[in-house]
Amino acid sequence: MKHPSRKISATLLGLSMGMSLFAQSAYKGQLYINSEKFSLQGELLRVQLRVSYDDDILNTGETLNFTPVLKSGQYMKPLSSVVINGTERGKYEGRSASFDKRLRQSIPVVTADKRHGTRYFVYDTTIPYSDWMSAAALYVESEERGWGKRPQVYEDKVFSSINIQRVAGSSDDDAQRKGSSLRGTAARSEWIHFLNPSQAVSSRITVSGMIPLYDERMIGKMGASKFNKAVYADINGSLESYLNVPGTVVRNLQVVGYGSPKGNYKANETRSSERALKLKKFLMNNRILGSDGLTVTWVPEDWDSISTLVGKSQMKLKNAVLDVIKTVPVVKGREDEIRVLGDGSPYSYMQNYIFPNVERIKYFVTLERQAGSGVGTVNNDAHTVSLNNMFATAQSFKVGSREYNDIVDLMARLFPDNAEANIDAAGVALMRGDLELADKYLKPWGTDPRAYCNLGVLNMLRGDFHKAEVYLQMAEAGGVKEATNALNYLNNVHK
Question: Which CATH number fits domain 202-368: 3.30.230, 1.10.3470, 3.90.550, 3.30.1330?
Fold first, then answer.
């Protein structure tokens, strides 16, 4: 149960920090956005938030991923995440990080420890700006995890619109003036970040889908054997094009089934559990994935989706139905209460049009693909070459040599969809002083952190000092030493 005093204390905390009295809340009303600032710096949008939270936001072993998301129409941009850990979870993560210094190196971590008086964090991130963001709303996605607990994701609209302020003194003209002496020059090799094979061994691909149980196929009415085969066929079919590429393997598969009310809740729960176990066994037996990376769960009665569909419908007494869903627990006769509303037509409508649309299976697959698994043809010769082999060949020559440059440039032309190849080719173009070609190679990877260093150098050579500095600072924060070299040059010579 939430205590009013805790909400008051969180608000007072916001006031003590010079924030607004009317904080926006998220995550079941336990996270408070006390202040916000959106500023446009050249072509980059800086997002600053002050976030406070209740004492009891998490149990000691739980963790919460806080992720702001910008949305406008069909456009969506998740921002970087902050992890909030319960006390014991924080200790565990701290011990893990001591063994692997790379663990969560790019994700800020906060420990929710009620013994300490400061229960807030300052969120500050920068992303490339797009025109649609001027009309965007700000949402917060909160992913709740715990040991032995199925992840839960909550989404809250925090601001219906954001007020973007343009930072004075950061105009393109000003930036060009500051860096004008660099125009027309070539980049130094110590500024360029090349991705070598050890940094480009693999990439992750996420595939998700939904299988309705009561469409024209009526999978939900099949016996267990046919049901499992149909689900397997759908999931496997969605992965076929990916798995046809050599070097691609399935790493994780999460399957979640959703049911609707059909009599006794306990009976539904038992049936759901049995169905989930049988499906998991079938998927394992058919070698889609081993048990370590496979989870199959079932929601016996998906009342959240039922409530959403009822709210969007034109059914009779829908507000009365929503009130029952909201106020009467499932185990206290929620379904019976709806059944007797009116002349029974609301429940009949739900049986015909709501429940069948609720019953479905959602799946989420993580694939791993070795970099350069695809092949490309060299000139008109019959032999083929892998990207990894080309990386290895390039590494046998000195960086900046004619041989090295030619091989790296060829990689980008043979593998135009590969990030590593294009980022490296942009580096070669920058050392040659060909800014137009470098821009061509980098443009598709403008939001990829691996490209930030070379993007910074590109803008530095263009004379856009401010944008260059932002990109280079982000790359430096990720541990790229070449970005530090370029920043030092800017600080010593052009500031």
Answer: 3.30.1330
Q: Are strands 24-26 and 149-159 parallel, antiparallel or unpaired?
A: unpaired
Structure tokens of 318? 């829908």
Q: Compute the distance between CA of residue 75 and CA of residue 54 in angstroms, rounded to an integer.
A: 32
When pLDDT is cut at 50, 70 and 90, the band that residue 311 belongs to is very high
Alpha helices in 328-434 (DSSP H): 334-339, 345-349, 355-358, 387-395, 402-414, 419-432
The string of pLDDT tens digits covering residues 434-477 is 888 899 999 988 888 899 999 999 988 888 888 888 899 888 88
Reported as a single tens digit per residue, the pLDDT across 401-429 is 777 888 888 888 888 888 888 999 999 88
Main-chain phi, psi angles of 116, to 5 degrees? -105, 145
Domain boundaries, the chain: 4-168, 174-199+373-493, 202-368
Among 154, 144, 20, 35, which residue's Cα sits nearest to residue 85? 144
Report whether pLDDT(355) > 80.
yes
Indicate the Cα dihedral angle 439, 443, 449, 452, nearest 10°: 20
Give the fold, CATH level 3, of 174-199+373-493.
1.25.40
Which CATH number is 4-168's, of 1.10.150, 2.60.40, 3.30.70, 2.60.120?
Answer: 2.60.40
What pTM was computed for the model? 0.39
SS3 386: strand
At 428, list the tokens: 């070669």
Nearest partner of 438 among 418, 417, 461, judged by Cα: 461
Token digits of residue 184 = 């027309």
